[in-house]
Structures are given as C-alpha cells and as structure tokens.
C-alpha cells in the first residue's frame, strides 16, 4: 500500500512536479526555505486536509495534487463499500481554486474530503516535527496508549452517553414533579372528555355524509319520483316510450337509407342506459325513507363533535389524532413520574458504563508496561542511556467518557532519577527524542503502508542522529518510510535520496524535487555537513558516511 507517484501543479511555489517514489527508506533534503515540507503539505491536502486558497501558486487559477498508491484487499473492500471503482492503482486527486473551493476524486469518481480522510488514515501515518508537544496533552497520550493496545473505545463512549442520559432524565423528573402532576391532570381531563365521544378516524366524514342525505331525504325522494315519471310516464309522455318509437321509425327505413340503421343502434344504446337509470331509481325509492329518529341522533352526535372541536381549537377531523397524541403524552408523563423505574434504569446504565470502562482499563493496564519497556529501549538507542519511560494510570472517582483513569507519560532522564511528567523534566531535544522513540515504537503496529517523519529529528545530533537514521532504515524494511531531515547522518542511511531546490523563473520562485545519486548525493551530504562551500574534508566525510570509494 505504498505511495508510488505524486503530481503537483501550481501548489504553493511548485509550478509542476511529477515524482516517483520507491519502497524502503527515503529522505528529502535541501536548503532551508527550499520547500522540503511542501511535499508533505501536498500529501495532507490529497488525504483530506482543510483546503485554503493560500496553497494556490501566485498567478495561477487553481492548484492540483494527485497521489497514487498500491491498493490492498482491505482498501479494495473499502472502495467497493463506498461505491468507488477498484483498479490496479489507487488514485487520489484534489484541486483548490483561488476562492478556497476544493474538489476531490477517488479513482476518477467525485469524493468528499471526509472520504479522503478515511482513506488517509489507512494510507499514510505522518509524524510532525512538533510531535513532542502532544506528550503533554492527556487526550493525545491516552490515544497513543489506546492505539498501542488496539483498544476500541466506542462501546465505552456509547455506554457513558447512555448513562449520562439516564442520569439527566432522572434529575429532570425529580425537578419537575409538581409540573408533571399538573400536566397529567390536564391531559387526563381532556382525554376523559374525548372518551365520551370516542371519535374514530373517518367517522366525522361518514356521519356528515349520512346527515346530509337524511336532511335532504324528502327532496331526494321527490327528485327520484319525478325522474321516474319522466322516464316511464304514461303511454305518450315517457322518455323510454319516445325512444322506442324513434328507434322503430329509423329501423323501418333502414333498408332505404343504411345510415338510419347506425343511428338506430345509437338510440338503442341510449335506451338501454335510460332503462338502467329507471331501474336504479326504483331501487333507491324502495330503500329510502325520511327516518326522523336517525336524523335526530345524528344531529346530537354532530353537535358533540363540533362542541369539543371548538373547545380544544381543532377541526372535527383532528379530534381522533388529538386523542391518540394526548394518550401518548400521558403515558410519557406517567413513565417520567415513575421515579423508581427511572432510578432503576439509571443504575443499570451506570453498571453497563462501569463494566465497559473496566474492560478498557484492563486492556490499558496490560499494554502500559510493554509500551513503557519498548520506549525505554528506544531511548537507550537515542542517546538517553539510563533513562526510563513509564506509563502512569491515575484512577478517577467516577467513570468518564474515556474511562476510569487518566493517562500520563513519565520519564527519568538518567539512571537513578525518579520519573516525572515529560513536560517538567525533559528538555526540547530530549522531548524530540522521546517523541521519536514513541513514534518508532507505535509505527511498527500501524496499518498505514507509508510513514512520514517531518523533521522529528530536530534537536538531535552526532551519534544519536546516526542511530535515528538506522532506526528509520530498519522501519523501511517493512514499511515505506519518508523523512524530511536536515541531518546528514540520517540522510546517509537512506535507500533513496530526494533533493529539494528552488530557483527563480519568470520573476517567481519555483521549487523542484528530484532524486539524486552518486556524486550528486555525495555533494548534498557534504553540504549538510559543512555548508554551501564544499571542502575536501567534507566531501571525504560524506563519502565515508555513504560508503562511497574516494576519488
């Protein structure tokens, strides 16, 4: 899952750059201000870092960063789940314009910055030059231990939040007892009033239609009778009889005028429909009566509906829904008023939280000693002989979101001294070395295929610097390691060497990165040893460090 290729266009002071990267241990070196960290900044942008307009090269409309990686089966599964195509390469691309607006793609498909960050966590692990500062922050220290122990704290956070919610619910219920009682009384009264009516969904529409029919029953009966008479009537006046005579007249002449037959067929259809209407009217008249008693009952029930609707400022149609809502609210109030049940729920949530916290504590206690031993061993290699590193776990009185303890790192700078918090006993250089020791120790456990160290060796020199280089080279046997460094001892240990330089072009400063080999690399190591003026001594020393034969 190593980084294989990176392309930059109009990024900060880089006009255009295409760079192939190899496995193993590689270094980036160059003069101060040449832009050694620009490549790191570009990678962070490709991996979802916040986009700002300032990253666009002056005079350009937008910048572009592309990073290409070797995918793994795990990464392929993530791509499929997220809806992206999986190819032989994993290509991340991001652009930023002068307004600060950014766009991102994964294997050619549009992506969000969040998706880039999710990928980035699995692709690259970056250790910055100020990593030591995190050693004094409780959250960062705790995160390091949890990562080392491979602890999943999400169940604990969920349990803690559930406990706090149950605790808050109980507290609110205790404070609102009088208010709850009044509200329960009001809801119970309203529910009792509507229960007298027992309004059913759709009932108002049904009784309204039924009432309308009964209220107009006489008019309906008279209209049906009149229509029946007009259809059937006496021997001469009924519409049906007239239609029959018209049909007969047309059919009698159909042999002379064929069109009459077609017209007669139309009238036959009309006659059949009119007969159906007459039949339906007879059926309606047989089953319809005035029924004043039913009408009176409907009047009373509709009056109750309208009275309750006005009282509670609702339409009649809304009463069934209102009754359901009031019953639900009353049930919630009854539950809230049940302090015994709420106290039981709070105790259960607290026990669940405590159990989850204890499981995390057991994992931390198990991992604390091995982490301390590993970092202590690394400290000896980094010029802190006799120094000791410890992981301190201070128990809390009550479970917190992060567990039952606070985590801190203690260090003894030399043999025989008592370990104390790192920020109080260590110098800047020692802090850098401790941070590097932790980085080396924890990096071996990570899943990211590429490790980047951005000047983490600041404050280190001499033989210790050489040890740092060997440690990174050792890491490079298993992972791709890229280090931005100003130490020739570290640079000399690298499998691959990238030189960062800048030059003026068309009135602008432009930065370039290119691989160097052979004599060119000797010259760069010599420059790092003695400055821009290369002497025979520095060149000889550089060849010695690189194992290059003397000219």
Structural commentary:
The protein is 55% helix and 19% strand. With 551 residues, the chain is an alpha/beta fold. Among the domains are: 1-127 and 447-462 and 490-511, Rossmann fold; 179-337, no CATH class; 517-551, no CATH class. It has a six-stranded antiparallel sheet with strand order 2-1-4-5-6-7, covered by helices on one side. A six-stranded mixed sheet has the order 8-12-13-3-14-15. It has a three-stranded antiparallel sheet with strand order 9-10-11. It is elongated and about 140 Å long.
Helix tally equals 19
Low-confidence stretches: none
* CATH architectural label of the domain at 1-127 and 447-462 and 490-511: 3-Layer(aba) Sandwich
Major sheet: order of its strands? 2-1-4-5-6-7
- Secondary-structure-based class equals alpha/beta
Report the count of strand segments. 15
Helix content: 40-55%
User: Would you give the CATH topology of the domain at 1-127 and 447-462 and 490-511?
Assistant: Rossmann fold
**What is the global morphology?**
elongated
pLDDT averaged residue by residue: 83
CATH domain class of the domain at 1-127 and 447-462 and 490-511 = Alpha Beta
Radius of gyration: 43 Å
What is the CATH homologous superfamily assignment of the domain at 1-127 and 447-462 and 490-511?
Answer: P-loop containing nucleotide triphosphate hydrolases
Summarize the main sheet.
6 strands, antiparallel
Distance between the termini: 40 Å
Strand content: 15-25%
Any descriptors?
551 residues; alpha/beta; 6-stranded antiparallel beta sheet; 19 helices; elongated; 6-stranded mixed beta sheet; Rossmann fold
């Amino acid at each position: 899952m190593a980084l294989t290729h990176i392309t930059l266009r109009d990024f900060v002071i880089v006009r255009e750059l295409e760079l192939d990267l190899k496995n193993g241990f590689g270094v980036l070196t160059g003069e101060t201000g040449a832009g050694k960290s620009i490549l790191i900044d570009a990678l962070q942008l490709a991996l979802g870092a916040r986009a700002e307009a300032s990253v666009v090269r002056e005079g350009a409309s937008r910048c572009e960063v592309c990073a290409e990686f070797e995918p793994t089966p795990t990464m392929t599964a993530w791509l499929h789940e997220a809806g992206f195509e999986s190819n032989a390469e994993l290509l991340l691309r991001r652009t930023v314009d002068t307004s600060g607006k950014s766009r991102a793609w994964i294997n050619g498909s549009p992506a969000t910055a969040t998706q880039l960050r999710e990928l980035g966590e699995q692709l690259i692990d970056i250790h910055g030059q100020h990593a030591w500062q995190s050693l004094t922050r409780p959250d960062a220290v705790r995160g390091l231990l949890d990562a080392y122990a491979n602890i999943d704290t999400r169940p604990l956070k969920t349990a803690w939040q559930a406990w706090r919610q149950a605790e808050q619910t109980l507290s609110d219920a205790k404070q609102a007892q009088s208010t709850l009682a009044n509200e329960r009384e009001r809801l119970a009264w309203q529910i009792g009033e509507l229960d007298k009516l027992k309004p059913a969904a759709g009932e108002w529409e049904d009784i309204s239609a039924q009432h309308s029919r009964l209220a107009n029953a006489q008019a309906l009966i008279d209209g049906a009778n009149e229509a029946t008479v007009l259809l059937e009537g006496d021997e001469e006046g009924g519409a049906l009889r007239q239609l029959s005579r018209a049909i007969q007249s047309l059919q009698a002449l159909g042999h002379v005028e064929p069109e009459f037959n077609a017209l007669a067929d139309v009238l036959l259809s009309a006659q059949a429909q009119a007969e159906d209407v007459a039949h339906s009217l007879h059926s309606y008249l047989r089953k319809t009566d005035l029924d004043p008693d039913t009408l009176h009952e409907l009047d009373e029930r509709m009056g109750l509906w309208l009275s309750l609707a006005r009282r509670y400022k609702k339409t009649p149609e809304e009463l069934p829904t209102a009754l359901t809502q009031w019953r639900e609210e009353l049930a919630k109030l009854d539950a809230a008023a049940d302090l015994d049940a709420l106290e039981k729920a709070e105790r259960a949530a607290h026990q669940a939280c405590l159990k989850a916290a204890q499981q995390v504590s057991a994992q931390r206690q198990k991992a604390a000693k091995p982490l301390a031993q590993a970092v202590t061993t690394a400290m000896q290699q980094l010029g802190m002989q006799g120094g000791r590193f410890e992981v301190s776990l201070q128990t809390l009185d009550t479970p917190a979101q992060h567990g039952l303890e606070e985590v801190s790192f203690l260090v003894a700078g030399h043999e025989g001294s008592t370990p104390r918090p790192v920020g109080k006993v260590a110098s800047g250089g020692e802090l850098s070395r401790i941070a590097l020791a932790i980085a080396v120790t924890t990096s071996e456990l990570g899943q990211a295929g590429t490790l980047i160290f951005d000047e983490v060796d600041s404050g280190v020199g001499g033989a210790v610097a050489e040890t740092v280089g060997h440690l990174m080279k050792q890491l490079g046997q298993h992972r791709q390691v890229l280090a931005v460094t100003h130490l020739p001892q570290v640079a000399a240990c690298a499998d691959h060497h990238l030189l960062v330089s800048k030059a003026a072009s068309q009135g602008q400063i432009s930065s370039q990165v290119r691989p160097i080999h052979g004599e060119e690399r000797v010259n760069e190591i010599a420059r790092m040893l003695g400055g821009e003026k290369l002497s025979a001594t520095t060149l000889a020393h550089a060849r010695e460090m690189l194992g290059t034969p003397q000219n």
